[in-house]
Write a structure and sequence with these properties.
Layout: H1 8-16, H2 32-42, H3 47-50, E1 55-58, H4 70-73, E2 76-78, E3 84-86, E4 95-97, H5 122-128, E5 133-139, H6 142-149, H7 151-160, H8 162-186, E6 191-195, H9 208-214, H10 216-228, E7 232-236, H11 242-251, E8 255-257, H12 266-273, E9 278-283, H13 288-291, H14 294-307, E10 314-318, H15 328-339
Parallel strand pairs: 1-5, 5-6, 6-7, 7-8, 8-9, 9-10
Antiparallel strand pairs: 2-3, 3-4
Length: 340
């Protein structure tokens, strides 16, 4: 029987240190319909404690919550940056109204990163989860630029408006850095998480050369501040980002998430980068979880635990937030096998 340390913080710290012989930690995140189905089945409104998740996450408050119900917020809602989002009861919605129609920041003012409402819940969250490994989502960099300009426009900006794009990303990065400084002064937590998708199903959204010019220096600043303040660095990027994983390691990345198996060979990643990184994710959400059988899911969870968990450095999690299309029996099979 593999060891599960008494403290969740110790469990994750020892996993990050690539200690062999530990049980593989696990984590699951849920869209509202998936969460409601599991809560009904288990008879609880506290899945994190009921399922004994060692990771606990939070983020500064926003006027546009991650999941905004139309019944409460209407069919659309603007966030602090001025981006208009659609709302629904299934997922986070979509950015439908960029706030920068032209590559011009002369009349734009970035939101106040130090606004008090953003940080009001963090001390209580930190204190309540002191025995767990706590991760604070601090923002998005490239993704935020795509929300503010629209994906097509910001990709054109890479080539046609590089000075504008550098200024836009600089402003977003400063917002993240200010958020981090305030949060780290305000309360204790273990890690910062940057959410910043760079990949598509088959490759990167931009060339590695463009990523290194426009994003690497700013990502490096974010990582460096976290390291200076004793925080672990967790980076979320969907899709295939193999060409820049070495860059992220050089900058100081600790945990890469969610290593989608539909976009990258997660077992090859373990062989190539497993000594230098902890991986979090790896369980397929496009085909396996919605379309597989419970036994197929159990088999893949066992394989992930055995191979990616070998020698530590792995946290089992689905490749994206569990969506409404996944049968309850499949969700339960994944959770039960993760806990086994």
């Amino acid at each position: 029987m593999q060891e599960r340390p008494v403290s969740d913080r110790e469990w994750i710290r020892r996993t990050l240190a690539h200690e062999a012989g530990l049980a593989v930690p696990y984590n699951f995140s849920f869209s509202p319909p998936a969460r409601a189905a599991v809560e009904r089945h288990l008879g609880t409104r506290d899945l994190a404690n009921t399922l004994r998740f060692p990771l606990r996450t939070c983020s500064p408050s926003s006027i546009k919550p991650q999941f905004a119900s139309p019944a409460q917020y209407g069919p659309s809602l603007k966030d602090e940056f001025g981006v208009l989002w659609s709302t629904n009861d299934i997922d986070r919605g979509s950015p439908i109204g960029p706030c920068l129609a032209e590559p011009d920041l002369s009349k734009y003012r970035f939101p106040d990163a130090s606004a008090a409402y953003r940080f009001e819940k963090l001390p209580e969250w930190s204190a309540a989860n002191a025995s767990h490994f706590t991760i604070l989502w601090v923002g998005d960099l490239w993704e935020r630029a795509t929300f503010m300009r629209g994906m097509e426009n910001v990709l054109l900006d890479l080539a046609l408006e590089p000075a504008f794009l550098e200024s836009l990303l600089r402003g977003i990065a400063d917002h993240i850095l200010t958020t981090m400084r305030i949060a780290m002064d305000l309360c204790q937590f273990d890690a910062i998480a940057l959410s910043d998708d760079y990949g598509t199903q088959h490759g990167m959204i931009m060339s590695p050369t463009h990523w290194r010019r426009f994003l690497r220096p700013l990502v490096g600043e974010i990582y460096a501040l976290a390291k200076q303040r004793g925080r672990v660095v967790f980076h979320h990027s969907c899709g295939n980002l193999v060409p820049i994983i070495g860059d992220l390691i050089e900058l100081g990345l600790d945990i890469l998430h969610p290593i989608q198996p539909e976009a990258m060979d997660v077992y090859a990643l373990k062989k190539e980068f497993g000594r230098q990184l902890t991986f979090c994710g790896g369980l397929g959400t496009q085909e396996l979880l919605p379309k597989g059988t419970p036994e197929q899911i159990r088999q893949e969870v066992r394989r992930l635990k055995e191979q990616l968990g070998s020698g530590g450095g792995y946290i089992l999690e689905p490749g994206i937030t569990l969506q409404a299309d996944i049968p309850l029996a499949n969700i339960l099979a994944a959770i039960e096998e993760a806990q086994a």
